[in-house]
Amino acid sequence: MQVCNRPKPLYEQKERIDWQLPGSHIVAKKEDVEFYRAELFSQAVTFGKYAPLFINDIQNQFNFKRLYPKLWENLHDLIMINNWPINKFAIVGKVVGGKAGTQTARLRIDDSSGDDSILELVIPLEQFEAAFLEPEFNYGTLVEVRGFFRRWRTIVDDIVVISSMPDDLASEMLHWSIRMQFREKVLARAWKIDVTKMQGDSEVVQHVSPGGSREEQQEEQQEEQQEEQHGGIDALESSIPLEKALKSYAKVIDLTGVVDIPVGRNQRAPDPPNVPTTELEIDKVGLVTATPPSIDTQMATVTRELLNNKDRYIKLVKESLVSIIRQCFREMTLDELVTDRFVQSQVKVFAEVLRQASGYHDFDYKREIMLRLALYFKDSELFEFTSNVIKPVKFHLMYRSIQRKLTTRTQIKTLNYMDHLASKLQISNCDYKLTHFLIRYVVSTSGLHWRYIKDELKWVKV
Q1: Helix pair angle (310-326, 295-308), 10° resolution
Q2: Do 28 and 71 contact (CB within 8 A), yes or no?
């Protein structure tokens, strides 16, 4: 029986273009910007991957209908910024409104990127409930939304809470910088196809800006192919000013979350200003490098930055405790705990904060963070931590005690209650901030109505 092969999508049919006929791949040209046939869209570095975008840029996309009038109805699943075709997006912003219905939920996301920085999304109710612990307490939550376009509307693939903490400036700035880099290094420059190889073997080679000898271009093409085999995307290195070339952004399109920012071979962050210029050298891609510091020096720097970012560490611990609560206090390994997407997100953000602060791009930040997290469980009297297994026995008892107090009492004097817990759980000290955090968490997730009177250090039922 003959098998019917499914035809390739229009965007991948580059073989339909006659590369021997000059200009056959161009449908329009505006000044120095060329607009290419739809068959070539899959060759753009912005296509088929979650592009980190600002909402304002999506809302003010280029109207390319007049350039593709006959194909317009078939191009409903993409937008165009400059001349770059984009069919997937990743935005990061705060929840500023929304409502859950019986089958769907509406969310309003604001990333403060301009006059049109608010995007309204409609998602299935189960997707909404999976992302948010409590539908009534989401205002100000920082989220990442990944999705695609259909009928010129945004469709959500996934939504992940990056931070539920108010005013988490570090996370906001991290994702803002990722999108600024992508906007400046890719979108602000016109997509340019080099047809030289197309005429020979019909393989597309693309650059953000052309330049260099034929041999240099061939060498760059080989490097690009090697990077793509490892998941990298090169569209940024060719014309970055030396003073700004502090990192390679070869994977910028994959940086829609908080994943590692890789650097090129033999590259690292710039050394402090007091490093003599005679010790510096320029590598082949034009980035300043120097002899890497010793492991002891790196460890000392990272340890200092860990202490400087204590608030980030506290957020990670809190998210870990919430994960244990969500998983009904079952025993789990530390590795299992970190697979929780909320905990994982905190680890990745923390690692990136440390990376930017210390400047070492080949250091295993995640390992150091995991060691600190393990130390928390090892030192806490509320947990048993042996052989990398977390047993939250007393933590579970503490949580249940708080639940009972909140449902049977009209007020809780925090300091007195802490003494009661320490005696009941047979621990030497009951942490005030942890107690306060758990009470607030139970109140916010159970529909109870309590308020905290700071001057009197007590909770009262209202």
Answers
A1: 70
A2: no
Residue-wise pLDDT tens digits, 78-95: 999 999 999 999 999 999
What does the pLDDT look like over 94-136, one tens digit per residue?
A: 998 888 888 888 899 999 888 888 999 998 888 888 777 666 6
- By the 10 Å C-beta count (0-12 exposed, 13-18 middle, 19+ buried), 229 is classed as exposed
Judge whether 301 lies within some domain.
yes
Alpha-carbon torsion angle 59, 64, 65, 71, nearest 10: -120
- In this predicted structure, the answer to whether residue 1 has a pLDDT above a threshold of 80 is no
- Is the same domain home to 401 and 376? no
Which DSSP symbol is given to 122? E
| 336 lies in the same domain as 367 | yes
Split at pLDDT 50, 70, 90, the class of 440 is confident
C-alpha–C-alpha distance, residues 135 and 417, integer Å? 30
Q: Of 28, 52, 87, which one is at a domain's C-terminal end?
A: 87
Nearest Cα residue to 52 out of 240, 210, 233, 263: 233
What is the domain range of residue 370?
295-391
| pLDDT tens profile 341-370 | 888 888 888 888 888 888 887 788 888 899
Beta bridge mates, 245: none
**Beta-sheet pairing, 88-100 with 51-52:** parallel
pTM: 0.48
| Residues 94, 86 contacting (CB under 8 angstroms) | no
Integer Rg of the chain from CA: 26
Give the torsion sign (CA, 186, 173, 368, 342).
negative
Write out the DSSP string of 292-343: PPPHHHHHHHHHHHHHHTHHHHHHHHHHHHHHHHHTTT--EEHHHHHTSHHH
Which of the four pLDDT bands, split at 50, 70 and 90, describes residue 7? low
